[in-house]
Amino acid sequence: HHILKFVLSCAGGNGMLTPRTMTSIAPSKGLSNEPGQNSCFLNSALQVLWHLDIFRRSFRQLTTHKCMEDSCIFCALKSIFAQFQYSSEKVLPSDALRSALAKTFQDEQRFQLGIMDDAAECFENILMRIHFHIAEETKEDICTARHCIPHQKFAMTLFEQCVCSSCGASSDPLPFIQMVHYISTTSLCNQAVKMLETREKATPGMFGELLRNASMGDLRSCPSQCGQQLRMARVLLNSPEIITIGLVWDSEQSDLAEDVIHTLGTCLRLGDLFYRVTEEKARQSELYLVGMVCYYGKHYSTFFFQTKIRRWMYFDDAHVKEVYGAVLVVGHTDNINQLTVYLIYYL
Ligand SMILES: [Zn+2]
Ligand SMILES: [Zn+2]
Ligand SMILES: [Zn+2]
C-alpha cells in the first residue's frame, strides 16, 4: 500500500516578496534510519513539520509545557528542531522522538520501536500530543487556546448536516474537528470525469470543487422522509492556515494512480472545498501545495517546497536532494498500482 502526502504553501507570500531578514531559514538535513528501525514514517512526518514555516516559527515561540520527562514528545521535538537549526551534521538521528513516541503510545501499541507505522497518523498524533503538552486543560474538541498551534493553524472545525431543498427539513448538525481531510480516490476520479464532461477544460478553482464533490458521500433519505435523496454538506467554521488532505484507496490494488495524479491541483481555495465557509478570511484563502509524503514499496519519503529558496526538495531518510517538480517525479514512477495521497495545504 502506497502513500503520498502533499503540503501546500502560500503564493508569493512568505518567500521572495518578504525581505530576507523576515524569513527564517529552514536548513535541510537528512534523518537517519538504520536497518530494523523502520523510522521512515516518523522521518517523513518530521520533515513536514520542520519545513512548514508556520509550524516551525510558531513552535519556536512556545516555551512552557507540561513535561512528560523521557516520554515527552514536546521536548524531543524541541531538541531535534534545535539540531535542524544549529547542528553542523548533515544527517540527524530521530531516535529521541521515536522513543518518546513509542513510550507515549505504548498502551495503544502504536508507533512501537522497530515497527513500521502510518506517516499521516503519526503526523496527526504528534499534533494532538502538542495540544496535550500546551493546552491540556481544554478539551480536544473545543480547544480555543490561542497558543495551541495544532488547533489554531491545522484543525478544521466543521459541522455536517443535510438540508432538504424540497421540504426544508434538516438533520441535527454534527460538529467535529479534523486534522486531515480524507477523500476516497475512487470518488475523486469519478467526480473528475463528471466535472470534465460539463466544462471544456480544467480551471484553477476546480481542484477545491472536485475535492468537495468527491467528499460528499452517499445519498441518504430526507430526515422528514419526504422522498428526496440528499447528500451531507460540510460547513467550515474556522480559518485554518494549513490543510492536510488524505487521499485514501478503497482497495489494496488500484489502477487509478495515474488518474489521481492528474486530478491533483497545486492551488486550493477553502471556499471551494466546503459547502459553506463561515469566516470571511477563510472564504478568501488560497492555499498552495508545498509538500507530499509518498509510501511506495513499503517505504516513506517526502517532497517539500522550500519557501526560502523556492525549490522542491526530496527527503529519503538520510538522503536529501533538490528536485524539479515533485508531481512530475511521482507521475513518472513505474508500476504504481496504488497510492494513498495526503495533501497538506498551507496559507
Ligand atoms: Zn518536556
Ligand atoms: Zn489545542
Ligand atoms: Zn425533504
From TrEMBL:
* UniProt xrefs under CDD domains: Peptidase_C19
Q: Supply the SUPFAM superfamilies for this chain.
A: Cysteine proteinases
Q: Where is the USP domain?
A: 29-347
Keywords, A to Z? Answer: Hydrolase, Ubl conjugation pathway
* Highest taxon in the source lineage: Eukaryota
Could you cite one Gene Ontology molecular function of this protein? cysteine-type deubiquitinase activity
Tell me if Protein transport is a UniProt keyword of this record: no
Q: Coiled-coil regions in this chain?
A: none
Leader sequence range is none
Output the Pfam families linked to this UniProt entry. Answer: UCH (PF00443)
One Gene Ontology term of the biological-process aspect is:
protein deubiquitination
Q: Does the keyword Iron apply?
A: no
Q: Which family does it belong to?
A: Belongs to the peptidase C19 family.
PANTHER family assigned: INACTIVE UBIQUITIN CARBOXYL-TERMINAL HYDROLASE 54 (PTHR22975:SF5), UBIQUITIN SPECIFIC PROTEINASE (PTHR22975)
Any idea what this protein is called?
Answer: USP domain-containing protein
Naturally occurring in which organism (per UniProt):
Gasterosteus aculeatus aculeatus (three-spined stickleback)
Lineage from the top down?
Eukaryota, Metazoa, Chordata, Craniata, Vertebrata
